[in-house]
């Protein structure tokens, strides 16, 4: 197994067998509750559901995309149209765990691990910002629209550079964020559609604007 296109070509029998084990899976952790925010930057934790399309010179494929992002944990899953998980990438306490094709891999660099195992340079470390229409200090925003939202973003410190286009915007959880974005790098093109985005907060913590986000559970100390 050397690339993600292989992972999308499970037989129907294997898919149906996997569904029986996945039917009881949940998404949002029970200690997080939905909240509304004025700006996406106020949400220290969020989850999103959407679609990821990958295009190269030789092949095209698409999967469902789920992402749970908190201050302490990132969980990314790619699934088939029937809901079967074909790739799971979880980062917590500086360690990344990749589960794919029935095997488990670990590394302290999520991007490097994903590239080594799957062959795809999906920018998992930058995506939490880009998905929510934000840029890092090293990113260069080349243009803005009439509402002062980024239109084109590049990563000049990386070679080859990523070229990110924010094509459509929407409102979710009270905040404005991209609905469609396209990422280009050399001969790789990624399209991400954000269907659902939900800001989250710890249910035991005040949801005042200054306190939004996931906080450590003091009761476990």
TrEMBL record:
CDD domains noted in UniProt: LolB
Keywords of this entry: Cell outer membrane, Chaperone, Lipoprotein, Membrane, Palmitate, Protein transport, Signal, Transport
InterPro entries: LolA/LolB/LppX, OM_lipoprot_LolB
UniProt membrane topology term: Lipid-anchor
Entry keyword Transport: yes
Major subcellular site: membrane
Keyword Signal: yes
Subcellular location: Cell outer membrane
Gene3D superfamilies: Lipoprotein localisation LolA/LolB/LppX
Signal peptide range: 1-25
Family: Belongs to the LolB family.
Subunit structure: Monomer.
Protein's job: Plays a critical role in the incorporation of lipoproteins in the outer membrane after they are released by the LolA protein.
NCBIfam families from the UniProt entry: lolB
The protein's name in its UniProt record: Outer-membrane lipoprotein LolB
